[in-house]
Amino acid sequence: MEAVMRRVELLLDQRRFSEARGMVMQGLAQAPEDAVLNAFLGYCLRMESRAKEALAPAQLAVSREPEWPFVHYVMALVYEGLDKPAKALESIDVAIALDPHDASYHGLKSAILFQRKKWHQAIEAAEQGLQSDPEHGQCRSILTAAKNQLGQHAEVAHLVDETLRLDPEDGFAFANKGWSYLRQGDPREAILHFKEALRLEPELEWARLGALEALKARNVFYRGLLAFFFKMGALPSGAQFGIMIGLFLLYRFARSVGENNPQLQPFITPLLIGYLVFAYATWLGASLANCALLFHPFGRMAMTRKEKRDAYVLGATVLVGLTGVFSGLYSDRGVFLALGVLLLLSTLPLVGTQNANTQKGFRLGLGMTAAILIFGLLGIFVAPHLFGVAMLLWLAYVWVIGQYVTRN
Prior knowledge:
Layout: H1 2-13, H2 17-30, H3 35-47, H4 51-64, H5 69-81, H6 85-98, H7 103-115, H8 119-132, H9 137-149, H10 153-166, H11 171-183, H12 187-200, H13 205-216, H14 220-233, H15 237-260, H16 265-293, H17 297-302, H18 305-331, H19 334-354, H20 359-381, H21 385-406
Helix pairs in contact: 1-2, 2-3, 3-4, 3-5, 4-5, 5-6, 6-7, 7-8, 7-9, 8-9, 9-10, 9-11, 10-11, 11-12, 11-13, 12-13, 13-16, 14-16, 15-16, 16-18, 16-19, 18-19, 19-20, 19-21, 20-21
């Protein structure tokens, strides 16, 4: 058994997870209840992105050796892969309580907190890990990424330079530097660093996403929208919600003032239109920019198949909707105008559905989009009052259901 475990550990160090899993399975054939072997089986499966299959052996290992911190670390990895961050944090906290000096445990905790957009807590966890191992890769990477999110560019530059000194081919460090340039409004310099990161690590999603954002940010309008997203992203979720509600209340107040004071309408109307354009852009700006990337060689190459499909669907919906609106306006055909408005309104739940992070969210978003279109079409061609039902569903999506569909 010792010879098997030495071989397994060697394969894991080389990140040959499939071969390591094969060796573990050989050992489990002789000792199916062994906690160590089950822990390593769960670890291998999780590293192969097979979190569902990893759950059972990880749970067995925890039940057999609850005082061994590694089993709780594996359990946290599995829960993280199953998109259960609360349970993942519970498990990694147990591992840290049992062994507070293992930097890998703090690194995983910082990564989970980073995914939950808890930037300050992620920084604290990463720094605790670096106290045990000042050169720990994951802790340094998450620390840099979290400080990036908070706009601490000077510290990010120092951390990236130090990381590259330790490892000149660290793709994540180049990606972090790219994000820093992007946050400072320099997409051209950012894209160079993202390309270098992808050259070093072609599968690095952090760099791929950054490259797409940098390409879109070459458009001055999207760059301004992206700056707003960055500012909002650095705020706590409660503050974000408060700002959006505040903007909406200001919109309602300005609208009321304009209705009661006709002489102010020429000044208020542009503000109201600007708010509506801004609101629409915050919902669809990133997805509409993806449509433009379909015509850029590198952008098209960097996009996933799903992103391309979503961009084609959204682009076609917007194009047909605008065609209907303009046809209705110029031909005085109310049906064309109504169809165009319906399609343009449906783009909000459509994009929410495309960006859903869970199957439940996707199904709910798809159902809402279909219901809005069905009631809208029935209202146009059968019973006009049903168009009002479609609008009520649309409002319900915008204010309530959309938050559930798109939440991470």
